[in-house]
Amino acid sequence: MRERSKSVIKLTGIDCDVLGVLVNYMYSARVCITESNVQSLLEAADLLQLNSVKQACEEFLVRFLDVDNCLGMHAFAQLHVCPALEREARRVMLSRFMELIQEEEFLELDREKMQSVLAGETHLKSTHSPPLSKNSVLDCYESFINNRFWLITMVHY
User: Where is the BACK domain (predicted)?
Assistant: First the structure.
């Protein structure tokens, strides 16, 4: 810990306002988590090993999970090792899969990420039809992506 011998320590990657919230937490044991600061706060708490703040941020994010943000939150949870957020984001993805495939973010997934999302899932639940197998979903996804690229190239000519 070479920081011990320095009089000034530069914390790169931490927003000044977020650092202020964390310093306030260290003095008061209270933290103000908002929709606008939660991700930055979780990242900083993770970096500074403030596990109680990180866990509070994770719980906050779980409450705001929805089909329109579950893919991004799943990736964020994996990056910052947030098991509850990752598990809940995956649950939203699988339980609302038919809605998820209509989201713009879904179209940006590659096959590996799709396989990661579906890992361990043998059937997807759907209220509109019988359960879909993981392989049929992957085949459908790949066909959709291939046809989308074909359609884009046709439109440009």
Answer: 70-120
Residue 118: name the closest of 130, 129, 106 by CA: 106
What is the structure's pLDDT at 9?
76
Using CB atoms within 10 Å of the CB of residue 7, give its burial: 0 to 12 exposed, 13 to 18 middle, 19+ buried: exposed
Q: pLDDT > 70: what percent of the chain?
A: 73
Q: What's the pTM value of the predicted model, to 2 decimals?
A: 0.72
CATH fold of 1-64, please?
Potassium Channel Kv1.1; Chain A (3.30.710)
